[in-house]
Amino acid sequence: MEATTIPSGPKDLVIRNLELIDIFELLHSVTNCLGTFDYSNLENMSTERVQVSDSIYLAEWRLFQLEESYRNLKASRPTSSIVLEHHSDVKREIRCPSGLDLSESLMFAGHLFMHLALRGQPPAAPRNRGITGALMSSLFETLLSLNILPNPEPYGSPRSYHSTGSLGNSSVESWSTTTTNTSILSSSPAKPEDDFTKNALLWALFVGACVRVPPVPNEFHSSHQVLLGDHRQFFIHALKNYCLMRYITDKETLTAKLKDVMWLNSWCENQVNLIWAEISDHL
Question: Based on CB atoms within 10 Å of each CB, which residue in 2, 10, 111, 145 is the most buried?
Fold first, then answer.
């Protein structure tokens, strides 16, 4: 698993957190093991189950530690753009003014993937709202920088993501059209050397789109917060636009790029089928 850690431009995607890369390699090995698990071999079944279970607990514990480190950094330096390189050493930091770091977003996406795919948490469970909201917040500036999402308009305005009273029936078409297909397709195709990092962003959007918690508009007040209230449409809209930017126009290509990051056979296949049914007509 090779990730870009040094950007060549201000809008290049990077993954600077080395601890996170280690955790993803561990989770990748877990999903590979589950995907090739031989349930007919009772002799090795018990041992393999213990190893997989221990690996899941270890990855989850490391993610918790990493999230706590990020929270502590934000609390102590709320205005700085500092990325923690390793959670056990708060003094080891990478300061880099350029590049769009996906570390925090992948941290939340990995945790969400564990809840949904590995632990079988229902996609509509209310407890998913907190971590999904954190994932959305961490992705928001990155998506705006890439021109995948338009600037949020005041809630209820004609150009807003949602018109007043339409939250219950929102769809891809109901989102603002400030970002058009033409502006997305004007970008050059993804460079081969950046494929993994770009696929990591695609994967994070896919994981977020798997959550189906109903929006709760009364909890939010500002236009930015109202936008983040509709988890489902935020990710569906962003995933559709990023597929257009990457020239991903068929389900097989999307599946192949998601498998490059992390994949759990039947669960992911089912989710891709559901999501593709929503976005395919717009690609």
Answer: 111
Element (H, E) at 112: helix 103-113
pTM value is 0.74
- Is residue 269 one of the residues assigned to a domain? yes
Give the 3-state secondary structure of 194-235. Answer: HHHHHHHHHHHHHHHHCCCCCCCHHHCCCHHHHHHHCHHHHH
Give the integer Cα–Cα distance in Å for 278 and 131.
23
pLDDT along the chain (283 residues), means of 10: 56 90 93 80 72 90 92 70 45 56 96 94 90 93 86 42 36 38 37 73 97 69 49 91 95 96 94 95 84
Asked if 59 and 27 touch (Cβ cutoff 8 Å), the reply is yes
Residue 194 confidence (pLDDT) = 57
Taking the C-alpha atoms of residue 69 and residue 78, their distance in angstroms, rounded to an integer, is 13
Place of tokens 């257009």: 244
4 falls within a domain: no
Full DSSP string of 2-51? ----S-SSTT-EE---HHHHHHHHHHHHHHHHHHT--TT-HHHHHHHHHH
Answer yes or no: is 80 within a domain. yes
Cα 207 from Cα 247, distance rounded (Å): 20
What is the tally of structural domains in the chain? 1
* Residue 213 domain boundaries: 13-282
